[in-house]
Amino acid sequence: MGAHAVDNALGGVEPEKLTTLDSLPRPPIHSLFGWGVFWTMPEVARRHMAKLGERVVVDIPFMPTMVFTTSVQDARAIFLERGGALEFNDALRRLSPHERVLGKDLIDAFGGGQHDQVRRLVMPAFKGRALRGYERAMVEATRMRLETWELDKPVSFYRLMKDLARDVIMSVVFGVTEPERRAALEDALIELDTAIGSAGMMGRYFASMVMKGKWLPFKALDAAIAKVDEVVAREVEFRRATPAEDKGEDCLSMFLMFQQQDGEDGFFDDQILKAFMRMLLLAGYETTATTLGWVAERLVRHPKVMEKLDETLAVGDETYLEAVIAEAMRVRPALPITIRAVEKDCRINDLALPAGTIIVVYVNAIQKAAHAHADPERFDPERFAERRPDPMHWMPFGGGAHFCLGAQLSLMESRVLLRTILERRRFAPDNSPDERQVQHRSLMTLPGKGARVTLLKRD
């Protein structure tokens, strides 16, 4: 068995040549304090762990042992593993709030034998013709929103993008244009977002880590989820009563078609449909808002990049725009890690992993490796101006079987929204210090000041 592989048994490598967890470095400070640093000062944690080596063990009381790896060979092996030794859904269940918000059935669908089937079923909604059909709604939503933004004074671009991306995702996912139904959906989404971002949710989130994935009751979240599901149910009822020729090309219409294809006794019942809608509505705008917030934060501090972007967009060339977005996602990935739960004793290349361990692919560190990128801390879109990012050194969407379903949609949305904004607005240069990266409730890394920018009217 060669490199870049996971073996479900510990055989295949001579025992004396196996790397064990006991032989790996650990942070010299108390791990609980180190975990706090990871959340509050992620770049400090990254630089500190880089001094310890490619693999670092983090032990936190009452939580699984975590192994952070920045090895590209390990990452490749983890992404290619298909034998059941590593599970994505169980890692989400143990260390993230996804199951509490999306439900057990949908999280289960991301692991085991159902995963490939579900992915094949829904993939048409996130590529090709479907994406092209979403662009007009994205442009219209952007043009409407930008007319309401304040000019000539600092604003949080991340906050603006949250509102805009929510508008876009409502149009793309639901296709709702009727004012009353759209307002009901927006109110439900804002209520759910508020509940997820509350101190009560954060406290329960950290408690769930200690309680092995179990969650304390939270009535505010339950009520918000029920409100979104009620809106979805009404919309589904409306669509089913609407003649086929009047149905749009939004995600909900496509998912109803997927449900028909899956059959009466299939996996895709109405509960799963509601959970998917929740996932798309939440993930679809939070990630985009974070990415575009970081793009703006980087652009205002790099006026030469902004100047070239203006020049290329003026002649209809979006190649450099794509490079700007890709580079922002490299130096400021919205999701700095991806995780897998070790289901049974196995080895990743030469590393022996006992069942119960969490293996963490440290995306933020891999993307800033000096051997992969010259001057890796520098924001330099020229890296990707004439070549696509190497997927083993650029992985903001993860990799392998669990590569983000909405990756193409997210990239397209970021490109269309930013291009449409820059047609009518420009960013004032800013020589203030870089905004600090702050870990968010959903593991996302946000600009510490909300991506403060000053928008100017374009002549």
From TrEMBL:
Q: Which residues bind heme?
A: C404
Q: Does the keyword Heme apply?
A: yes
Q: Which PROSITE patterns does the UniProt record give?
A: CYTOCHROME_P450
**Cofactor(s) demanded:** heme
- Which key words are in the record? Heme, Iron, Metal-binding, Monooxygenase, Oxidoreductase
User: Has keyword Iron?
Assistant: yes
Which GO molecular function annotation, any one, does this entry have? iron ion binding
InterPro entries to which the protein is assigned, alphabetical: Cyt_P450, Cyt_P450_CS, Cyt_P450_E_grp-I, Cyt_P450_sf, Cytochrome_P450_monoxygenase
Q: Name one Pfam family in it.
A: p450
Q: Which family, according to the similarity comment? A: Belongs to the cytochrome P450 family.
- PANTHER family (alphabetical): CYTOCHROME P450 (PTHR24305), CYTOCHROME P450 12A4, MITOCHONDRIAL-RELATED (PTHR24305:SF166)
Name of the protein: Cytochrome P450
